[in-house]
Amino acid sequence: MQPSILHGIRVVDLGRYLAAPYCSQLLADMGAEVIRVERPGGEVDRQRGPYTKEGQSLLFVTLNRNKKAVTLNLRSDEGYALLTQLVGKSDVLLHNLPAASAASLRVRYEDFAAHNPRLVYLSISGFGGKGPYADYPALDAVIQGMSGAMTICGTETSGPTLSHVPYVDFGTALYGALSIVSALYHRNATGRGQSIDLALYSTALSFIGGYAIMADYVRNGAVRRHMGNDLIYGVGGCFPTKDGFAEINCLTGDMWERMCALMQRPALLQDARFATGAGRYQHRHVINPIVQQWAAGLTTAQVVQALLDIGIPSGPVQTVDQLPDDPQVQALEMFPTVDQPGAGLIPVAGAAMKFSDTPLRIARPAPAVGEHNDEIYSHILGLTAPDIARLRRDRVI
């Protein structure tokens, strides 16, 4: 069996809640040894719902598999000294502490760089390390609102609409994992680590910029508002059928010709209003009712298959309870289970990255509080059993 991609890389994880834990979990899935450091007794994100009937946080389980866990009181001198030793023997340190907390706990890049110049250091915060908002707290929903995304979603009736899949957190986690792997690659060439500053706000704004939303405003004066389920410069959206809903994405002129033939509406091709993508977008209030009338006479399966048969992307709008039976979900192995002690089998996120030679693996469930204290402190830092016992008595670990 090939070694995992990040085999031999050690990560000290001070992350909490979503963005940082998901980032470090990706690294762990790629084979890194990820050591989650918590205060004695555990961190508050172990208590965030939803919960199992036994009272365990399902969110914690799904974000912390493949990791090891130690406890450490970073506000004690001895605890901080142990952290410094552990970071000195590690490749990566990541956290999502506010700047003031990072300074108070002495876990800034400059606190470790001289001791370990090869360290790759990732800081995740709401607004980054500079600028007038740098000290403000923020969570995914706040950033969705500030980025303009919420006013693009929803309708005039609903008003600004929140995505309940926290894409800003998960997008930042992906940026974080990419940044760390890139910095490790750079370190292999230069021998030097570096500091990485990631902001939730930057993530959201990069998506706004990448989707040409800002360019459309600056160059064309277009302020996208309350797009609902409409597409940008395309025909489609979410349409009701006889037994549910179908998502239809007709983006190009060729697709539009095929769709008009499918709906038996050839006259639409002669209408000058619909001759271009911009025209079809501008007159979507005319086109969408026609598509809706066609879809309403068919089942969801019939709509989707008919469109797929002529090369137009379409799919059923599914509820969460339908996903386990979706044959493509099964083929992609996207909801494997972990056997979580005290809770039983729990579905978690499968590996989205499919490597041919070094597949990502789930080796262990989410760790218990301080589960790996003895292993980490003895094998890595060389402490004896009496040393560890004393640290427990003194509440250092």
What does this structure look like?
The chain has 397 residues and is of the alpha/beta class. The chain folds into two domains: 10-207 and 331-393, Crotonobetainyl-coa:carnitine coa-transferase, domain 1 (Rossmann fold, 3-Layer(aba) Sandwich); 235-317, formyl-coa transferase, domain 3 (2-Layer Sandwich), CATH 3.30.1540.10. The chain has helices at 19-29, 58-63, 77-88, 99-105, 109-112, 140-146, 149-152, 167-190, 200-210, 213-220, 253-262, 277-282, 284-296, 300-309, 327-332, 373-380, 385-393, and strands at residues 10-14, 33-38, 68-71, 92-95, 120-125, 194-199, 235-240, 245-250, 314-316, 337-340, 344-347. Strands 3-2-1-4-5-6 form a six-stranded parallel sheet. A three-stranded antiparallel sheet has the order 7-8-9. Helix 1 (19-29) crosses helix 8 (167-190) and helix 8 (167-190) packs across helix 9.
- Mean pLDDT score: 96
Q: Which structural class matches the secondary elements? A: alpha/beta
Report the radius of gyration as a whole number of Å.
25 Å
The CATH superfamily of the largest domain is known as: Crotonobetainyl-coa:carnitine coa-transferase, domain 1
Q: What would CATH call the class of the largest domain?
A: Alpha Beta
Order of helical and strand elements: EHEHEHEHHEHHHEHHEEHHHHEHEEHH
Strand order of the largest sheet: 3-2-1-4-5-6
Q: Kindly state the number of beta strands.
A: 11
Q: How many DSSP H or I helices?
A: 17
Q: State the shape.
A: elongated
Give the quaternary arrangement of the chains.
single chain
* Structural domain tally: 2
CATH topology of the largest domain: Rossmann fold
Query: pLDDT below 50 for ≥5 consecutive residues: which ranges?
Result: none
Q: Which architecture of the largest domain does the CATH hierarchy give at level 2?
A: 3-Layer(aba) Sandwich
Helix content: 25-40%
What share of the residues does DSSP label as strand, in percent?
5-15%
